[in-house]
Amino acid sequence: MAAGVATWLPFARAAAVGWLPLAQQPLPPAPGVKASRGDEVLVVNVSGRRFETWKNTLDRYPDTLLGSSEKEFFYDADSGEYFFDRDPDMFRHVLNFYRTGRLHCPRQECIQAFDEELAFYGLVPELVGDCCLEEYRDRKKENAQRLAEDEEAEQTGDGPALPAGSSIRQRLWRAFENPHTSTAALVFYYVTGFFIAVSVIANVVETIPCRGPARRPPREQPCGDRFPLAFFCMDTACVLIFTGEYLLRLFAAPSRCRFLRSVMSLIDVVAILPYYIGLLVPKNEDVSGAFVTLRVFRVFRIFKFSRHSQGLRILGYTLKSCASELGFLLFSLTMAIIIFATVMFYAEKGTSKTNFTSIPAAFWYTIVTMTTLGYGDMVPSTIAGKIFGSICSLSGVLVIALPVPVIVSNFSRIYHQNQRADKRRAQQKVRLARIRLAKSGTTNAFLQYKQNGGLEDNGSGEEQALCVRNRSAFEQQHHHLLHCLEKTTCHEFTDELTFSEALGAVSLGGRTSRSTSVSSQPVGPSSLLSSCCPRRAKRRAIRLANSTASVSRGSMQELDTLAGLRRSPGPQSRSSLNAKPHDSLDLNCDSRDFVAAIISIPTPPANTPDESQPSSPGGGGRASSTLRNSRLGTPCLLPETVKISSL
Amino acid sequence: MGAVGNSSSLQTKQREPSKDIAWWYYQYQRDKIEDELEMTMVCHRPEGLEQLEAQTNFTKRELQVLYRGFKNECPSGVVNEETFKQIYAQFFPHGDASTYAHYLFNAFDTTQTGSVKFEDFVTALSILLRGTVHEKLRWTFNLYDINKDGYINKEEMMDIVKAIYDMMGKYTYPVLKEDTPRQHVDVFFQKMDKNKDGIVTLDEFLESCQEDDNIMRSLQLFQNVM
Predict the structure, then answer these.
(1) A630 exposed, middle or buried (CB, 10 Å; 0-12, 13-18, 19+)?
(2) Are residue A225 and residue A207 in the same domain, yes or no?
(3) What is the ipTM of this complex?
(4) Per the database record, which ranges form the EF-hand domain (chain B) (predicted)?
(5) Which of residues 139-168 of B touch A (CB under 8 A)?
(6) What's B193's domain CATH number?
(7) HSE (CB half, 13 Å, CA atoms) of B205?
(8) Residue A580: pLDDT band by 50, 70, 90 thresholds?
(9) Nearest CA to CA, how far is B32 from chain A (Å)?
């Protein structure tokens, strides 16, 4: 029930007194009335702006946040007010809804933000009042459309790489639909485009009259008849290419039926069919007339260009979407033509030697006049005819001019939509790259922190780098959290490049070299790792002595430079490198359960910097700290090792 | 009684009269609109709070709450019959409450002006909720007396009873029969009409009601509605 009705409830109940004398049975007792607290003023503090309202006002809608007991969660006993950390401007509209019963939509705010506020306060968007409802819906629809386009662009665009297990079919189809994905596809795309052009030009050129060899009288033949073989060869070549393309598409299409029904495939078929029909049909005189007609269809090859040109597609789509306007145009034109043709015919009937022999003959005159062409092959000679002729030409302009703006605006809208989609697709890549960069920044912060020896005990506080000490409380806690995670999983965080390179190395089974550049590494976590599975590591070390390596800091640096990130190596304090043995022993992850999914990457020996010297590890545990074992046998290895330890 | 009418007709008459057809036509339209505006813009303000408090049985706080709700719903300060009907329709959605609302409106509108001001509203509520038995019964008699002639006859009673049954709607249990209202009226008249002359006067009404225990008890029901 509307809130306002609550106001009238006492009145309605009071008016029931009028029923009393008529009641044949005793009326039920009234419901127990709680001691009604006097109406009080509530203070709602929204981000500093105080709104005050009667409690009754808020109680009008008990199924919203402010009307129910949910608001008690936001009650601040000290100040005696309800505090919401939300947008105060939006709250104004929400509160007005309680007061007036109508929810108005703010014109200058983002519709999404408004929706979120409504959701927070427990108001359904359907409550938007009639005055603002249409605009609200329009804006919402526009937004949703844009978001959908975005998503679509993301998916269909040059989207994510196909899963490794995709079949030839899928790859082929993708190459056809998005020529930009691979070079071969691009080449194919341009080649077909070229051949379409060649075919169309050949069709045109073969009708040009070439001067025959000097003969008396010099005969003019169309080029097609003069060089029949050349043109036939060109035609064959084109048709072969088109046929091949069509068959390939048919093979690669995920849904053949749908492909067969699509417009583009129909165009393809129409383009190549005349040739084959021409081949099959024997060259006798009766049929050759039809055969010649078939050649007309060759011109449809030009429509194949619509795969190559987006503008053409847009035009086609526009015409399709303006079908009703075009229909109207056609209908009104037909009506006008018939009317005027009839009038002109009867007006010119009396004249001798007139061109207006029949009404259909007058159709031609009417069309030519209405479209303001005015060939002049048919001209009225009577005065009445001239008068009606002029009316005809004046009205023609009007009738044609009416639906045209609609079509134009449709085209413009669709075209701009397309432009926007393209632009967004292009920008999307840049956006994603930037976002990735920002994200990697935070992970790098942790890695940087690790390398700067931040993971050691706070004992040697002064020796810690300034950058380590100057982290905010939030960062400290965050890093501590990441560290805990590392300890829990016995994995370490590393960066993307290291991981992908490691992955590459594993699949390559590549040449690895052992380089024990422990000295330059914060050994803490790695020693943890190693001592986490010391026995295993040792065993493996012995067995796979040659197949392990560790990513030296130098190689890390090299990778950094490769990635364009320049990381200043933190001060290498020896103390930080000495693995605290008790650290490792504290670890309680069972080495047996632990999947030592460590990837080894080849360290290009040439780039091994000076720092990575084979140091004699202090503790026994450290010997194996440099060795990482890759259990190539385990199938579950690769998917799990999202973050790989890196030394 | 502060009746403030927003008539802006004064301002328009100050224009330079020209003899344009267009101008006369424009004026005509303008006046038409203004007449309509005048009717809607009339804003009514009630008497002071103290006076109302003296006249009714409500406290100041109760009057404040009542007025706030009233003003919120009817910013112009008056309720018209349409609003009454709408309100009742919302309370009784099953059936058709418009007839009863019409009678109710007439009962509220003591001055028969076609609109109920806040004073009327509050006065009636005061009687119904805080009044004496006598007052309540008299108010009810006034409600039943549709033509306000001081007597209730069978036709008036029929109308009232039918209106009440209309509020019930179609889906009732047991099923509503055609002559149920008539029977009800007959029972009523049998009880109320002491001298069996076919009409019920105020005294007969008061007497009969005071004899009936049920009615007396029920009258106390709506005491605490506020």
Answers:
(1) buried
(2) yes
(3) 0.71
(4) 96-131, 132-167, 180-215
(5) 139-140, 143-144, 160-161, 164
(6) 1.10.238.10
(7) 26
(8) very low
(9) 26
